[in-house]
Amino acid sequence: MIKPKTSLAQILTAGILFFAAASIPAGAAEVRPGPDAGEAVLHGEALARLNCARCHEVGIAGESPRPAAPPFWSLSDRRPVATIAQMLIEQASPEHTDMPTFEITQKQAEDIAAWISWVQPLAHGRRLVIENCASCHAVTLTDESRHPDAPPFRLISKRLPIEALEEAFAEGIESGHPDMPVFETDIIQLQDIISYIASIQTVD
Description:
Distance between the termini: 35 Å
Number of helices: 7
Largest sheet: 2 strands, parallel
CATH class of the largest domain: Mainly Alpha
Radius of gyration: 19 Å
Strand content: under 5%
Order of helices and strands: EHHHHHHEH
Shape: elongated
Oligomer: single chain
CATH topology of the largest domain: Cytochrome Bc1 Complex, Chain D, domain 2
Number of strands: 2
Strand order of the largest sheet: 1-2
CATH superfamily of the largest domain: Cytochrome c-like domain
Structural class: mainly alpha
């Protein structure tokens, strides 16, 4: 558990950042979907681990066994995830030319695409803040904070630079209030949380 060192009140000149009472569990790279992820995600994971893991990293973090085969979690940097199912059906131009040909049904392609969407950093970060922060903070573009002193995540950049969040988390955060929980996280979780927070910043 990270020992709090930094008073966030010293970092933020207006408002205090709160997190939900339950700390995020360590080991993000080992995260597996629960039953609430849905049948498509669960089936897609099974298909990916059976058919794709020889070349690709199919989980939420890590490097691929084959350097030319992009990790599944990085695919949203290359193309819209919504196009992946059709790409699989068409077997469109893989970057590693020794990728085998394969037979795949529409449902299999859609389920693998659902799994790929599930492991993307923004999707992972969104799940983490909804599960662990939404009891106090507004964590989307439209909801309202439930705690009166918890600023909406979409407005955090008005209080401090987004790039300062990683250092604040790494050093430990202390609000000076009794309902501020200790926050522990690993580097993958932290990066994905910050990526998600950065993605929802608004000027409103």
